[in-house]
Amino acid sequence: MKKIAILCSGGDVSSMNAVLKRFVDYSIAKGLIPYFVNNGYDGLIDNNIYKAGYSDVAGIISSGGTKIRSSRSKRFKDIGYRKQAISNLKDHCIDYVVVLGGDGSFRGMQEISNESESIVFGGIPSTIDNDIAGTNYCLGVDTALNGIKYAIDSIRDTASSLGRAFVVEIMGRESGYLTLVSALTSGAEMCLIPEIPHNLDAYKKRFKKEIKQGREYFIAIVSEALNNTQEVANWLEKEVNIESRVIILGHVQRGGNPTVYDRLMAFHFATHTIDTILKEHKSFVTCYNSRGFEHKKIEDVAFKKSTIKDELLKLAMEYGDSK
Ligand code: F6P
Q: For the chain, what is the radius of gyration of the CA atoms?
């Protein structure tokens, strides 16, 4: 019987556990022996590899994070440690490996897959940043967006009660995707993302006019990539003359009970990845686009820059022009 292993690499996302559950159930149904690698690529190096069964995934579908832990492995960049990882996989007679992670994890996957020859690797895009080229959707994004939505809705309650401005900083690394979608879906008055230049003078003019017309509070959603959250709050106080507070949502955006959408996507990503692994003899990344689920070469995913779709960017432009 062939053996298939799974690991999580990089920042965790909600619904990784849903993937683990489907991975074990579907692997067994397909006649494979499932294995877990604890602690991501570090676990491969340290031989933290063990056989998994139904009891390992019982009841985990509803929890965020990952039962098998994750790591941002520095050692994996070193070929000596990757050789150790390959030797551990071969000792366990592992034929296939599923990797949940972002583009950095897939670059590592490309290297180990070239070096290990016979082992086939399949990637599942998993990052709240939704910044992987070649796929419209990465696991964890919907849960993160829903968590942010709850947070901003609560912030609005206090902002409106006290007539204040709130500047909310959103994760996303270099991508403004999470920030933009959160701003649009929470009715924010201001949205600053790295993809679109912004004009503070135009914002000031508009905000002053709106205050005269009865607007009593503002919600500004700002991407962490811009590194100017406190500055924006200071600007609101000084130039718009409104008391302001900063909220850095931080790592709460990565956790929590996975949404129905993420659980379903986890199911599909895991199924498609195992089906492809059994058909293909080359490593790949599973992607989700308008055509549905498909697999792409690692180099077409991990080494390209992701962009926000034009239709969303058009809406961001309206913020850029300050409406
Ligand atoms: O890539 C996911 C992410 O949450 C980014 O949005 C954020 O910039 C980064 O990870 C934070 O990394 P860490 O968990 O190492 O602090």
A: 22
pLDDT tens profile 85-126: 999 999 999 999 999 999 999 999 999 999 998 999 999 999
Ligand 1 geometric centre to CA of 12 (Å):
9
Nearest residue (CA) to ligand 1, atom 2: 11
The CA 33 to ligand 1 mean position distance, Å, reads 33
3-140+258-305 has CATH 3.90.226.10 classification = no
* Phi, psi torsion values for 246, nearest 5 degrees: -110, 135
- Give catalytic status of residue 153 as yes or no: no
Task: Map out the domains of the chain as residue ranges.
Answer: 3-140+258-305, 142-254
Tell me: the pLDDT tens digits for 152-178?
A: 999 999 999 999 999 999 999 999 999
Nearest CA, atom 13, ligand 1: 11
Domains 3-140+258-305 and 142-254 share a fold: yes
Active-site residue (options: 95, 103, 129, 131): 129
pLDDT tens per residue across span 193-202:
999 999 999 9
Q: Taking the domain 142-254, which CATH number applies?
A: 3.40.50.460
pTM of the model: 0.97
